[in-house]
Amino acid sequence: MSALVSDVGTRTAVAAASLVKVYGKGDTAVRALDGVSVAFQAGKFTAIMGPSGSGKSTLMHCLAGLDNVDGGSVQIAGTEITSLGDKELTKLRRDRIGFVFQAFNLLPTLTAEANILLGLELAGRKPDREWLDRIVDVLGLRDRLKHKPTELSGGQQQRVACARALVAKPDVVFADEPTGNLDSRSGAEVLDFLRMSVRKLGQTVIMVTHDPVAASYADRVVLLADGHLAGEIDNPTADSVLSALKHLGA
Ligand SMILES: Nc1ncnc2c1ncn2[C@@H]1O[C@H](COP(=O)(O)OP(=O)(O)OP(=O)(O)O)[C@@H](O)[C@H]1O
């Protein structure tokens, strides 16, 4: 495993080139992304930040193949996704991308373990038990696996959602405001986990957040403003992120 963690450091997990996304037509058209080129290294935790309306969610949706683009390219682990059909995209998202959303989206009738394994089951794939064990241990979910979502705290539910996102060993995990529904303590636990999934399990995480403290858990922050790349910060602190955002008028 340590070899895997050190190997991934220089590979590109996700790359966008000259990405353009336009909503609407004519006078009311909005260029939500206006030529964004950015690369995300494998084995790193990157946060996407910027003022409200700067294009963060749009960028995430285009990178993850959840939305079509109007120009440019997106590659996930070397696969160009903008030219894929719906079926191929669905398969790519299912097999190679993990998602963590603000709403935990767990099925209430299933146990935590069944929620974690559901995607694999639907895809007809067997879980790698050793990998599952590692994820469960890193997430501290061992004694919660038989519980239903209503028997879990918000933080625990989000950790189950993180396990679900990681269980298929995706090329990348996209997290959209993963701490938006959590108090600060549970939020810190989830962020700690996302960081550990990168450092200890060699995973790649790209997170959209409004919160400079959340962004400070990342290895790197990518800043957007008005649909453009507006800078980046390596080894961010909450203060350095906050002052960069102030600079952008957020
Ligand atoms: N479905 C849509 N139809 C029309 N315009 C849209 C749509 N989605 C987003 N936009 C516009 O595109 C721009 C970028 O929106 P986006 O949601 O990506 O920004 P954001 O940085 O994620 O914002 P926030 O921080 O407020 O969530 C904004 O001007 C927004 O109003």
From TrEMBL:
Residues 14-245 form the ABC transporter domain. It comes from the Bacteria. PROSITE patterns: ABC_TRANSPORTER_2. Transmembrane segments: none annotated. Keywords: ATP-binding, Nucleotide-binding, Transport. Gene3D superfamilies: P-loop containing nucleotide triphosphate hydrolases. It holds the Pfam family ABC_tran. One of its GO terms (cellular component) is membrane protein complex. GO terms for molecular function: ATP binding; ATP hydrolysis activity; transmembrane transporter activity. PANTHER family: ABC TRANSPORTER RELATED, IMPORT ATP-BINDING PROTEIN. This is Putative ABC transport system ATP-binding protein. It comes from Saccharothrix australiensis.
